Each structure stands twice: as structure tokens, then as C-alpha cells.
Amino acid sequence: MSLLRRIEKGGGKGDDDGRKNRPQQSGGGVKPTRNRPVEGAAAKSTQSGYIDLKNRVQNKLLAELNQDSDTTAKDELRRHIEELFNAILAEESMVLSRAERARLFEAIVADILGFGPIEPLLADETVSEIMVNGPKMIFVERKGMLSRTNVTFDSDEHVMRIIDRIVAPLGRRVDESSPLVDARLPDGSRVNVVIRPIALCGPTITIRKFEKDPLTVQDLIRFGSMTPEIADFLRACVIARLNMVVSGGTGSGKTTLLNVLSSFIPGDERIITVENAAELQLQQEHVVPLESRPPNIEGKGAITIQDLVVNCLRMRPERIIVGECRGGEALDMLQAMNTGHDGSLTTLHANSPRDAISRLEVMCLMAGMELPTRAIREQIASAVDVICQQQRLRDGSRRILFITEVQGMEGEMITMSDIFEFEQTGYEGGKIIGRIRPTGIRPKFIDRIEDAGIHLPPATFGIGSRR
Fold first, then answer.
1. What pairs with residue 403 in β-bridges?
2. Which of 63, 88, 112 is at the close of a domain?
3. Residue 458 lies in a domain
């Protein structure tokens, strides 16, 4: 019997002589033993034995690799690991079946070269989000729905090793003095990490995966997020250099929509992107990505989004794209929109277009300039032309719910008008049936679209039948 087989059976001397499974006599009767606690102990023994075996082989492997570190290419390193792996198993006289050997080898390679137990989840194209809630609770999102996996880490320390592998190449750190960090994977997927003492359940990782091939406008039309008429309208807005804000909740698809909107920008324009963790996937050639930087261990050297927005105004931008406005940078973004940088794009968290305006007001106040509310509202009304409201619906689908025009000021209030809105027509088979439709209102900025040489048919706005 192979070593892993013995481990999985919870084997030991106590099992060989059969004493654990013998009926025990007490007085004149025979009491059968309870099997559940024994099975539970066997399961724990199985897991403990496998982890011990894996750690022993992995530690010897790492020691060998440290002595021979001149193999750096990933494919070569994998072959080198396999040679050492086979040598170590032979040296320790470990007898494993082919399946056991493959399972152990892949687990070790994932720990050394990849991201440990979550490596298969990262490779699974059906998984859009991975949530590690401590070492033993790992959830994924598929098609907008959450489910728990049977994947686990060995311990908190195991999770921390993977976290270090994610954040170290980016020059970021996570420890007790700085227990949370934003990062990204080499493929651009967004990562958020929270560790103890903030995360009570243990090291917590949230990974939002992005498509290897960025979603296109045709993909969003196919998914039902928008219609061809909406796509033509949004393309016209971008080409006509209207300032646009994409608002929505967490995971509603704001960044995806921002990527699609940015794909409409002509290829001969200079684009500067500003992000907390670079995740935009622009296809144009002339793109300058900027990324903020947290403070170092001494609390110095931080570069904020606000710093980057101010700096990019000196870089001759034709388009400024801010991945997400969260604070005082909103005021600098509005001023950029109002000072010749038309066609800028950004996202923010809000539940409706009206809430997006309120959020912008609050974020401008966070800049610490102590501006009167009316002055801030005038800046917003003058800068922002269009708000696209995204939402993840209860069936997991992501839709554009509103496309709203910011028309101007009336007294102390910013006036807005919905150009398109989502209308739900039913709910079948767990899916929401509906479509975003025009409200029949022609936007005031239509002249700017036509000045750009784009003529949208009246039917786009639902007013074709009135002519």
C-alpha cells in the first residue's frame, strides 16, 4: 500500500492490530463503538499526513532550488522542479501511485511558481471572482452567482505566502502596521488583501478576474447589457468628446463599460489613464498609464490619485481616464473637464444618476477647499455631460439601467434628464427579461454630436414616429 493510501486511510499501528474497531465489553454487555468520531479523526489524520508529506517534499525542493538558482525561465524551472521532485521521492523511498504523484507535484508547483491552491480557479474561465475568507473558506462567482469551493489552504501562513507573492513584485507590502492593500495579478486581475488584526477570520483575498481578451461592445450587446442603438449613441458621445461618468455598485461592470467606452476613442489621440491599481485594458497605441503608490514603511513617498490627476494635466493629454474617483481627486477631475480636456471618462460608486451627482459633491468637499455648495454644483453641471448607470441585477446579469444627460442648473439644483432607461418586462427561469429603451427625449448636446459629423436617426431616441 502506497504512503498516501496509508495516510488517507488514517493508517497507523493502532489500526493494524484492530483494537480501535473491536467491541468493548462493559459488565455483561457488548457496546458497539461509534464510527463517526473515528472517521472524523481519520479525516483529520489524512489531511494532516498529506500536508506533512507535501511540506517535507516542498521544503527539500526549495532548498535544492536555492542552491541551483540559475534556471529562471518558467518552463525550465518546472522541468527542474520535476527532476528534483522525482529524485527526492526516490531518496526518501516514497511509493506513490501515478495519480498521487501527479496530485502532489501539481500542488507543489502551484505553491512554488503560481498562486497555490487557487491556481486552478484563476485558470477557470467560468470564474469571474475569487474570495478567500481565511484558509478554509474559498468562494467563487460564476455567472453572477456565489458558491463555495472545496479548495482550501493549509494554514494562515500558507495564505500569507501567496499574498506576499502577489504584492511583492509591485513594491507593495502588507503587515500588521499596514494590514490592507490593493494590488493586481500579472494578467491585470484586481486584488484586494486584508489580514489580521483587521480580518478576524484570517488573511482575506478578493480577486476580480478580467477577461484575457477584453470584452467588446458586441459582447455587451450579446449579453443584453445594451442594444445596438445604445452602442451607436455611446460611440457618438465619445467621438463628440462629451465628458462621461460611469456609476454603479461594486461588481456592477463599471470598469468593463469604461473599457468599452474607451475603445471608441480615435487611435490618433493621446490618452492618459490614472488608476489605483492598473486594470484598464485600452487597445490604442498612444496610452500612458499612471498608477498611484502607497506610503513606504516610514509613512512617506505616497503618490495619490489626486497627485496623478494634477500631474497628468502637464503631460499634454487629449483624453484623461480616471479608473475610479473616490475622494478629493474628483475636484481636480472636474476642473480638467472644464479647462479644455473634453472627452474625459471616469467611474464612481453610486446607486443612481442623482446619487452620482451627490457623491461628486461630497468627494469635491473631501478635497478640503471649503468651496460653497453652489460653486461645486456649477462645476459638476458644467463639466459632466452624460452619466451611465450600471447595475448587477438579482439574476446576476449586469445591465445599463439609465443613460442620463446633465442639463445644467436651475436655481440651486442640477437638472437632469433620462435619455434611456431599463424596462423590466418579466422574470422567467430565474432570469430578468427586459431591455433598455429610449424615453423619447432628445438630448440637448445632440448639436455637439452632429458637429462631429455623426447623425443619429430620430428613432434612436424613440421619436421617429412623431415625424
1. 388, 420
2. 112
3. yes
